[in-house]
Amino acid sequence: MKAFAPPAPYLLxxxxxxLVGLAASPVSATSALYLTEVEQAAESTAVVVARIGTAxxxxxxxxxxxxxxxxxxxxxxLLGSAPEMLTIEQFGGTIDGQTLYIPGDAxxxxxxxxxxxxxxxxxxxxxxxMQQSKYEIRQGPRAQFLTRAxxxxxxxxxxxxxxxxxxxxxxxxQTLAELRTVLRSAFGRDGEKR
Length: 194
Prior knowledge:
This protein is α+β, with helices and mostly antiparallel strands.
């Protein structure tokens, strides 16, 4: 297993705070900067519609902490490039009946379908912005709707500096079709990042 690389430079502090939280308490909070869909896409290697496969928990060889690797089957590439099957790495997991995780990170269920914003670092795949990078897909009568869990610990960048986020500064996309339109508008029709 390769050494862990941070998902994005500005999330390093959040990841380190989460690791401290792992040692201190499983209910500690992690802080992160709120990102819109376009901001996440700009930091991502790929944005995909995916089906979640199996997950395995092991121990990270350097930090001696649980690490979960989850298999992802890419159904549709919305932006960037990614193989049809990849594995996401996340700190945390259940070992010997104890569950440890980084608060604010996404949780997956086998078989669920979702949109993922992914970043590849040294050949390994990570969520770009932890929990913010997972949009659940819900099938409605006329459209596929997206929901994103936005937990506590998110901050907004304002002219006055960072402020805790009470609600998203702009309405997040609500359907998969809207997300496709937003990404094409921001990055071009071919789905390749420029």
